[in-house]
């Protein structure tokens, strides 16, 4: 940051920043668990708008799971949903190592456009980052607002009691990065361990060299 002080807070996006996400793998797992075709899961979960409603906070978790189960003709509880979400995500150890290095130097959190249950899936997917992330996974479904709306960034800053200029936001979508910058956060667009490491170094974080050198490919972004 050209001699400026280190950010006090680093907010990571989840999908395609901390973890690679695959619709196909998630759908296949849920289809197997419910004994239905993948096409049916896709229709009920995504084409119907159910997932979008949950991600936007228009319905709560109980209603979401009830409607999902009714549509699939089989009960879907939190455990099955989380297991399917975990099956559809894969984490690069190099990315986790970077986040751990940052957590030793600043406060860290997650700001993601996902329903509230994603916070529970993070406990499995990002186990090495807990308990640091305890109470620090902010989901759009719980906040009832989405990136790139300015309000969600302000809500996140208030949650962490941090001024915009003291926070760094990292996302894979340019629109979300632009939204964060409009509120006054430092923000970078990243796509993998290498670009994440480079962005963190630009903002003054001390990291091990070549964080992406041993990255493992995973998922469909």
From TrEMBL:
One of its GO terms (molecular function) is hydrolase activity. Gene3D superfamilies: HAD superfamily/HAD-like, Putative phosphatase, domain 2. Keywords: Hydrolase. It holds the Pfam family Hydrolase. InterPro entries: HAD-like_sf, HAD-SF_hydro_IA, HAD_sf, PGP-like_dom2. It comes from the Bacteria. This is HAD-IA family hydrolase.
């Amino acid at each position: 940051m050209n001699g400026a002080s280190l950010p006090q807070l680093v907010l990571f996006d989840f999908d395609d920043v901390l973890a690679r996400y695959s619709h196909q793998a998630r759908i296949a797992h849920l289809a197997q668990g419910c004994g239905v075709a993948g096409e049916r899961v896709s229709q009920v979960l995504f084409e119907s708008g159910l997932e979008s409603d949950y991600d936007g906070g228009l319905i709560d978790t109980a209603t979401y799971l009830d409607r999902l189960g009714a549509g699939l003709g089989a009960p879907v509880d939190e455990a099955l949903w989380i297991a399917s979400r975990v099956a559809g995500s894969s984490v690069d150890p190099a990315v986790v190592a970077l986040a751990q290095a940052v957590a030793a130097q600043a406060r860290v959190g997650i700001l993601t456009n996902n329903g509230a249950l994603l916070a529970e899936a993070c406990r499995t997917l990002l186990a090495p980052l807990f308990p640091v992330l305890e109470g620090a996974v902010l989901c759009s479904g719980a906040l009832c607002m989405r990136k790139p709306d300015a309000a969600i960034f302000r809500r996140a800053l208030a949650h962490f009691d941090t001024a915009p200029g003291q926070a760094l936001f990292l996302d894979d979508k340019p629109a979300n990065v632009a939204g964060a910058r409009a509120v006054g956060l430092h923000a970078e667009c990243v796509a993998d361990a290498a670009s994440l490491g480079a962005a963190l170094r630009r903002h003054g974080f001390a990291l091990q060299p070549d964080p992406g050198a041993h990255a493992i490919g995973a998922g469909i972004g």
